[in-house]
């Protein structure tokens, strides 16, 4: 059974460029989460969706960040324009319908470097 | 009040020893406490979790101890092995919500 799939795995871009990160959750999972991980701030929840609807985006750092979930099997996190301080590992996670908040399944992450 | 405080930041243990990682919380509404394990280059993975109606939960060499009155919980790794070397995160949530509040992580190194 495939886990959470993220692409690309690595992204290097220049400041000011648009970056799009992609996520395919585990089939049948109805909640999807985007996290950012840095040494300084640890694991931060950016936004999460239930049944494709954004529920809480209070963790999104600023208007340069946006996320969409057009259907149950795909989500994107977009940064436009990107800045060096956005350099981090971005994780997508999904959760099944049953089970509590702790049962989140993380993808392998996208390592983003903004020069 | 939403924070989960985790210590130590890093831990070095010899093979066969006991690794202990501690977490504390303030929000008494939290009722679900999972631990996640993260290997370099990988995403975090759920390791073990506890609800506050029990004081201890054991799965193999991993044990969570929970002290509701002190609002503290800890992860004990018995007979630590080099393969346990990873970063460990405690977390907390209310069972019927989706948000997990993560601790800052503990980097564990087990030397042979």
Outline the fold blueprint:
The complex is a heterodimer of chains A (115) and B (112).
Chain A: E1 5-7, E2 10-13, E3 19-24, E4 29-38, E5 42-50, E6 53-56, E7 65-71, E8 74-79, E9 88-96, E10 105-106, E11 110-114
Parallel strand pairs in A: 2-11
Antiparallel strand pairs in A: 1-3, 3-8, 4-5, 4-9, 5-6, 7-8, 9-10, 9-11
Chain B: E1 4-7, E2 10-14, E3 19-25, E4 33-38, E5 45-50, E6 56-59, E7 62-67, E8 72-77, E9 86-92, E10 101-102, E11 106-111
Parallel strand pairs in B: 2-11
Antiparallel strand pairs in B: 1-3, 3-8, 4-5, 4-9, 6-7, 7-8, 9-10, 9-11
Label this structure with key terms.
heterodimer, A: 115 residues, mainly beta, seven-stranded mixed β-sheet, 0% helix, B: mainly beta, six-stranded mixed β-sheet, five-stranded antiparallel β-sheet, 11 strands
Task: Describe the protein in words.
The complex is a heterodimer of chains A (115) and B (112). By secondary structure, chain A is mostly beta strands. Chain A has strands spanning 5-7, 10-13, 19-24, 29-38, 42-50, 53-56, 65-71, 74-79, 88-96, 105-106, 110-114. Chain A has no helices and eleven strands. In chain A, strand 4 and strand 5 form a beta hairpin. The N and C termini of chain A lie far apart (36 Å). Chain B has strands at 4-7, 10-14, 19-25, 33-38, 45-50, 56-59, 62-67, 72-77, 86-92, 101-102, 106-111. With 112 residues, chain B is mainly β. Chain B has no helices and eleven strands. The A-B interface holds A 4, 31, 33, 42-43, 45, 48, 50, 55-56, 91, 93, 95, 100-109 and B 32-34, 41-46, 49, 89, 91, 93-100, 102-105.
